[in-house]
Amino acid sequence: MSSHAAAGRVRFRAGRAIAAAAALSLVGIALAAVVGPLDAGAASRKPSLSASLPTRAQHGQQLTISGRALRVRRAARSRYRAVLQRRSGRTWRKVARARLTRRAVFTLHWRAPSSGSRVTLRVALVRGGRVRAVARRRALRLLVPPPPVGNDTPPPAAHEELGELPIDPAEVDGYQVTAGVGGGDFTTRVPFAKGSRIRVSQGQGGGYSHSGAYTRHAIDLAAGAGTPVLAGFSGVIAAAAGGCAASGSWGCNRGFGNFVYLKHADGTCALFAHLTAINVAAGQQVARYSQLGTVGSSGSSTGAHLHMDRLVCTTRISLPWAFEEAGQPREGQTITSGNEPPPPAATPTPTAPTPTAPARRVITVDNRVTNGMGMREDTTPARLTTKPWIRCSTRGCNINGTERSSGGTYDAAVCQTTGERTTNGHDGSASDDANPERFESTRYYGVRLGNGTFGYVSEVWIRASDRGGLGLPGC
Q1: pLDDT per residue over 425-469, tens digit each?
Q2: Residues 81 and 211 in one domain
Q3: Does some domain include residue 178?
Q4: pLDDT digits over 137-193, tens only?
Q5: Are residues 211 and 308 in the same domain?
Q6: Residues 126 and 242 grouped into a single domain
Q7: Strand 268-278 to strand 80-88: parallel, antiparallel, or no bridges (unpaired)?
Q8: Does residue 317 share a domain with residue 393?
Q9: How far is CA 224 from the centre of its chain?
Q10: How far apart are CA 180 and CA 282, in angstroms?
Q11: 307 SS3 class
Q12: Is it true that the peptide bond before 434 is cis, omega within 30 degrees of 0?
């Protein structure tokens, strides 16, 4: 081969190499142009987080914090956790965590501490032990609740459980006041014996539990357990609800515990709540200074005190009101009762005694039901109820702790009334209908126990010799 031909071939191959290199360079530029935007897009898909953090809470309050993770691929969501963190010095300490749902949302539950005045919180998105995103941190102000009688134990939940009073508006509206003494212009006497000095443990509008529409103008009075509660004006008992233990019955009767609802002639009602014992019954006309019950800590309460308010009877909305002796006292203020005892009863002359019907009768329970032509003990014991009704286990009117089996006694029946029909037989059973001991009645006895509890029991569940009313007055 000639030298000219060899040189030409070398130049040809070099040209091809240069062309190939140029082509590769163009491909690289194109790839760089493509990869650059892809990398930027990947960077823009970094996960982020949105969450709603509160700014204030009460000591011991259960908080619910919800939020959503953004730009997290569906397939990877199961590997992420939403974590609530509390700042401790220069570090963040985990206090709650939750998984992401398929829609990348989460809900965190945490109870605020029972001491301190402020904590700093944030929500973080964590994967593989590393924080991938953080929601804006927020300072949480802690509100210190005033304990009713110096009890510093935090409640198991926020006092917002006090809500709409559990009464029947139609029934309350049906009660009429026969005579009105006191209570005009939304006032009342301090409901304790004259001269009693009582501390206001929470005033009107108190942030602990007096901030809702049903409690905004309520006042808590720190009196000892068992202190008699007296009516500040005359009226009719529109409702009297018991059935709650004297303490430790959180949430009972929607948090109000045992309560009395006293109706005034103007259509408003005074509420006396968290009682231990109740000394009156629905429909009863009461005079000013009459004892309604005793102070306690039933329902949602952290210590013995009287929760008192003036409400629109049927809507149960809290109204502005005042004490005749002390106006609208502030939280922490001590007030003195100007209430008075009822006038002494006139002493009957011995020459003209007036015979009266027996005021109290011990009655014996017969809790048997028909069993064909025989009788057997009912599997459910007899018990007192707050209303002369049947099926109170599903209607919320049973009074716990008053159960009796056959042979047990109630001391004592003090009045009688009518209510819903009760029978110890089986309606529709021909064999039960022929049982000579089958009995039905609409009569109920009003029973007051030695501890002051008042309730009703059908005479069906009382032995035959104690039926018929026993000459007792109407309830």
Answers
A1: 877 777 777 788 888 888 999 998 877 788 899 999 999 888 888
A2: no
A3: yes
A4: 777 766 544 444 433 333 433 333 466 788 888 888 888 888 777 777 788 889 998
A5: yes
A6: no
A7: unpaired
A8: no
A9: 23
A10: 17
A11: strand
A12: no
